[in-house]
Every structure is written in C-alpha cells, then in structure tokens.
Amino acid sequence: MADHFTSVTIIERDQLPDAPGPRKGVPQSRQTHAILERGAQIIAGFFPGFWEEMLVEGSVPLDSGQDMAWFHHGAWKARLAGGPTTYGQSRTLLEFHVRRRLLKDCAHVRVLRGDVAGLLHDATNQQITGVRVNGEDGNVAPLEAELVVDASGRGTRAPRWLEELGYGRPPMAQVRIDVCYASRIVEPPPGARDWKAMMVYGKAPHEKRMGFIFPIEGGRWNLTVAGYHGDHPTADEEGFLEFARSVHHPDYFAAMQDARPISPIAMHKVPTDQRYYYERMARFPDGFITVGDAICSFNPLFGQGMTTASLGALTLSECLAERAPGQGKGLSRDFQKRTTRYNDAAWAQVTGEDFRFSETEGERPPMIKVLHWYTRQIMELCSVDASVQRRMLPVTHMQAGMEVILSPSMMVKALMWGVGLRGNRALVVSHPPPIRFQSPPNEVRVAGA
Question: Taking the chain (449 residues) in consecutive chunks of 10 residues, what is each chunk's mean pLDDT?
Fold first, then answer.
C-alpha cells in the first residue's frame, strides 16, 4: 500500500515492542514458524537486502532439500542439495525486522494505537470510506480512507460488519482439527549433526503426534511438539518430555532430550481450519478487502500461513498497480477473487491431509479416499526417488501447484509404486538417517537475489 498511497495508517491494538518479543495480539508468536521460499522471495521484493540483513541478525539459511531431516508418511524423505531456500528464525525476530524496515523505508506510514469498532460507508452503502477507531483515550473517532484492509487474523470481525451494512455474511468453511502445539527455546546439545532442522510427522490415521526442531537466531533451537484431536501435549516438564518421547520416530527424542531449556513451554490451540469465501458474495463493497488469516487460516503444522499472507500482499500490490490513482472501483471484488489462486491450492493440500484422520469434521471433497491413496504414493516416492522429491519441493514451497502432482510422468511413477512394481526400492523407516543423494555442491542462495 505504501507504494500506491500518500498516507498509510496501521491500526494496532498492541503496544509494539522496541525489540523482538511476543505480544498479546499474536498468541502463536512463541511457536515454530516457517517462511517458505515463495514467501521469502516476496519479502525480499518489497524490502531489498532483507535476508542479507536477517543473516546478520542470526537467521539460519536452510537448503530445504539437504538441511532438513523430514519424516513423513512413515519414512524419511530423500535429501539432496539445491532445494528451495528458507530461513530459520523466531517469529518475533521476523515480525520485528519487517516492521522496522517498513517504518524506516516509508516515512508516510504511521502506526496508530487503537481498535477498529466498525466500518464507515457512503450514503449509497456501496463504498467503504474508512473505519471507526476506539483510541487509547477510550473515545471512538472516524478515520477516513480510500481503502481499508482487514489484516486482523482468524478473529476477524469483517463478516459481522458486512452483515450489519446489509451485504450479508460470506460463505464459510470450517474443518475441525483440534490441534494443540507446545514450544520452547533451547540450547542444542553438543555433538555433530548432518541436518539443521528436523520434522517428524505422525502417520495418519492412527498416529496423531509430531515434533519439530528449527534453528533460530543465537544458535538456539525452537522445539515444538503437537497433536491432533485431543491427543495434546502439556505445559509441564515431565509431560512435555513424555510427549516428545512418543513422537512417531525415535530420532526426534534422541535429538532433543539433552537440549538445555532457556524458555518456558508455550501452548497454543487451533480448533479449525477456517476459510471465508468473500468472492462468492452477491454484493461486496468497494474500498474494503481482507487478507491473510482473515480470509483463510490453515492448520499451522504445515507452515503455509506466513507465505499465503505474503502472497496476499503481492496480489494487492498487483491490483493497485493496474489502476490509476483514485480509480479503485471494482478493486475489492477483483482482489478477493485473485486470492483464490493460492488459497484454493493451499486449502486443498492442508485439509486433504487433515481428512486422513477419521475424527476430522467438515465437508469432505469427493473421491477423497482416491486422492489420499494417490498422494500417499507420491509422498512415499519422495523417500526413495530423488527426481520425485526434487519436483515436489517447489510444490511444498508454493512455487508450483497441483499440475506437478498430476503430470503424466508422476502418475506413472505413483501407479507403479502403488501396485508393487518397486524394483529393489524400499522405504527407509528404521533408525538409520534418511538417504542422501549425491548432488553437485550448491552455494547458499538468498531468496530473491
């Protein structure tokens, strides 16, 4: 927005800290966060040099192909050099650095402490013209604007506001997953490792527990354990360790059991995947859009939230660039329709995995069992066939879509694997580390460079 308007106001309920740190408005901030390569590229496009600065701050570069030990669908995924680049850091450091760069680079952006009480609209009720703001002094004051963007997350009040103005509520989808995750920051135990991050997922439909180790600034790890459908970790020391011990592969507990805790255990629960279909509304006002989790809030265990939010920022920038100043008619509906380009794919991937559990509640897509069988073959092939893993990594990082999974060559491989024509290949399911395929050495790439 700062590239297209002479004044931008961010209305923020929290007192923003002067250094990286958690805050009330981001209850998930202490948990492990991943920025996929597509999201990292978008951030670098808005803030040139961003990731070079983050490396100085202690962010850890990760080659997703070779630096991550990833246990998924009952086997270790193949490891190979030259995968998408991502970065390991705390959510609070990333958020703080984005905010610092924004306010440094854009003098016409200001932060206003307050809370939005509702929307302002014109006499014809066709155009949103601003918001009503509850200020720090307790008074409600109007704030006029050409464009209002709701970036308030999954607790958005936009559906109620639109209903109050006579537009009705947007159609909504919810998939009940009952996920709880617990995280803490630790100093890694001594010893050499051939990985920088570890992800161990339970094998649906019976194994609901999982564990993650991600590097963050200061040479530390963020440890996270999580579970579906009431199979939840606890915040006490003994319960946390016992839950970690029961994660699907013993390598996870072996890696983290001797780490030295340096923070309390932080808990966070996510009851549902949640999505609003604003693009399907019969009427939608100009001058108002919703972005990020305010449209679509995913199961966080798949790490797509920050990248889909970044794609929302890029999509808004594209929509604004196509219009002359003051010519915003139709922008709102156009933007909401364009968000389906990435939200549809991410929603299908995440809910498709969530529906592997019989306890998951929601509208199941047609032929879901066929899709589950097919994608399981692909995921298993990622453990034994380097070419499949290389093609799937861009899908994981939201750089490619379902066309990769549904390509003829991929279908042939999946069908042959599924009917047992596997040659001498077998899944790596035991204690030895995942297969490492030989690849040419690859320099660390900075996303967007």
Answer: 96 93 92 95 97 97 96 93 95 96 96 95 90 89 96 95 95 97 96 95 94 98 97 96 94 96 96 97 96 95 93 96 80 96 94 96 94 95 94 94 92 92 63 40 43
Return the percent helix, strand and coil in the chain, to nearest 5.
35, 25, 40
Model pTM? 0.91
What lies within 8 Å, CB to CB, of 314 at 6+ separation is 42, 45
For tokens 């609003």, name the residue.
276
The total number of residues shown for the chain amounts to: 449
**Cβ–Cβ < 8 Å for 381, 371:** no
Cα 385 from chain centre: 27
Burial 306-328 (b: 16+ CB within 10 A, else e): bbbbbbbbbbbbebbeeeeeeeb
Residue 138 CA, distance from chain mean position: 35
Query: How many secondary structure helices (H) and strands (E) does the chain include?
Result: 13, 17
Give the single-character DSSP code of 77. Answer: P
